[in-house]
């Protein structure tokens, strides 16, 4: 009955998304959700700019309409900083006639060119929106590439094996043997084959450092995404855009979406003529900003959500892998393991980096199969200890109970044992004799 239940659990886990990769759910939300959404929006924005009407200008009498629109699109459009929050005195937010706006909020004539130029805010980011989306997509994918440089990528073939329902159904014992042999060769045996203290320290914590560093990198990217986007807008508060979007405005304020994404802008065209420098000012509409204000709103909510999610994931990962008992209970409970004696023994030998590996494998296999794997690994460990006449590391006793009396050792050596050091991060070590792998 327990065997049939384990097979059903294997199939159920195979149907859960985000389980068939070396990174966990929070990491995959970053690289899958944000990357795909940003790429989709980059394609949408590119087609819209290539096919649709990007800008439409009027009131230009000295220049042809097509030339005026191309000039304004490429050379930049602007609004007046002091023409916001004055809905009763300006036709559009940020747009004012050739006037000087005094500090008391009243518009006076005639125009003051120096004052007008000082208050101009140029908007040129709209030209680069497709590239912006691509840059964001690449940024959220970089941590996964960093994680793939660690030795955690070696478990990918095992995960693929555990996801094959036909093999699980027809050859469960073969799967158990392959997983147990891999764990012994890549995680357990190197602990006994490496004598360098530095190599043991790095081997024991390299995967923990790698996984937590990737978590922290996702957090930094999410925060940087929010802050750098805020610098892209020269006016308005992007940091609070999502919070202010749904709030009503008073009669003397301009809505945040009209400040960050102006739909009506001004453009000044200048050129040399026979009589000297010639210029003309007109108005243009940016229909693209109607779409961008909603796309950026969704991106803001995703960005802020990922900031909190990544912060939680980073703290939780450090806490979980630095506390063996917490990780042990989490694996036992999440996999619904019934027999835990052999797993507890194995768990005491593998160290922090080994716990990262076992935690990931436990997401893709049932507790029944994990218990069978643990039983085989423990038998190999007992055989290895008899040949080498070695004692378990103190980390083993942290999980399995108090150790016997240990002779006093130098401080460095005691600290080394106390942290349960492992060799190089799953290095390419000489494999044990085939007789020990049966």
Give structural attributes.
two-stranded antiparallel ribbon; disordered C terminus; 438 residues; disordered N terminus; three-stranded antiparallel β-sheet; mainly alpha; 17 helices
Sketch the major β-sheet: 3 strands, antiparallel
Q: What order do the helices and strands follow?
A: HHEHEEEHEHHHHHHHEEHHHHHH
Low-confidence stretches: 1-20, 402-424, 427-431, 434-438
Strand order of the largest sheet: 1-7-6
Q: How does this structure look, described?
A:
By secondary structure, this protein is mostly helical. The chain contains 17 helices and 7 strands. The strands form 3 sheets. It has a 3-stranded antiparallel beta sheet with strand order 1-7-6. A hairpin with a 2-residue loop joins strand 6 and strand 7. Helix 2 runs antiparallel to helix 5 and helix 9 runs antiparallel to helix 12. The longest helix has 36 residues. The chain is elongated. The relative contact order is 0.15. The N terminus and C terminus are likely disordered.
């Amino acid at each position: 009955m327990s065997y049939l239940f384990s097979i059903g659990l294997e199939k159920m886990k195979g149907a859960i998304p985000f389980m068939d990769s070396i990174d966990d759910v929070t990491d995959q939300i970053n690289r899958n959700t944000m990357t795909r959404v940003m790429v989709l929006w980059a394609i949408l924005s590119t087609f819209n700019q290539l096919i649709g009407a990007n800008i439409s200008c009027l009131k230009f009498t000295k220049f042809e309409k097509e030339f005026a629109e191309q000039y304004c699109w490429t050379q930049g459009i602007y609004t007046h900083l002091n023409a916001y929050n004055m809905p009763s005195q300006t036709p559009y937010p940020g747009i004012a006639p050739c006037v000087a706006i005094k500090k008391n909020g009243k518009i006076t004539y005639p125009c003051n060119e120096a004052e007008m130029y000082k208050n101009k805010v140029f908007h040129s980011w709209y030209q680069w929106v497709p590239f912006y989306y691509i840059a964001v997509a690449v940024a959220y994918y970089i941590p996964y590439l960093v994680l793939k440089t660690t030795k955690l990528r070696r478990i990918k073939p095992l995960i693929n094996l555990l996801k094959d329902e036909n093999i699980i159904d027809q050859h469960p014992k073969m799967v158990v043997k392959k997983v147990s042999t891999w764990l012994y060769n890549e995680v357990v045996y190197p602990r006994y084959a490496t004598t360098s203290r530095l190599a043991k320290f790095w081997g024991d914590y390299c995967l923990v450092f790698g996984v937590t560093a990737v978590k922290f990198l996702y957090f930094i990217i999410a925060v940087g995404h929010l802050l750098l986007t805020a610098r892209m807008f020269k006016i308005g508060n992007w940091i609070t855009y999502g919070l202010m979007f749904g709030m009503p405005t008073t009669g003397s304020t301009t809505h945040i979406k009209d400040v960050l994404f102006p739909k009506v802008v001004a453009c000044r065209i200048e050129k040399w003529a026979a009589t000297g420098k010639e210029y003309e000012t007109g108005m243009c509409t940016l229909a693209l900003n109607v779409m961008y204000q909603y796309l950026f709103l969704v991106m803001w909510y995703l960005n802020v959500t990922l900031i909190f999610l990544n912060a939680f994931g980073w703290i939780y990962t450090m806490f979980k892998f630095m506390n063996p008992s917490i990780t042990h209970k989490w694996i036992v409970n999440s996999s619904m393991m019934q027999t835990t004696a052999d797993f507890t023994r194995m768990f005491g030998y593998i160290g922090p980096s080994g716990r990262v590996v076992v935690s990931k494998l436990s997401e893709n296999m049932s507790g029944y199969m994990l218990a069978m794997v643990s039983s085989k690994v423990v038998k190999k460990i007992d055989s290895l200890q008899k040949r080498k006449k070695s004692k378990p590391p103190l980390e083993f006793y942290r999980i399995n109970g108090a150790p016997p009396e240990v002779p006093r050792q130098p401080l460095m050596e005691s600290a080394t044992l106390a942290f349960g050091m492992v060799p190089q991060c799953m290095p390419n070590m000489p494999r044990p004799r085939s007789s020990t792998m049966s």
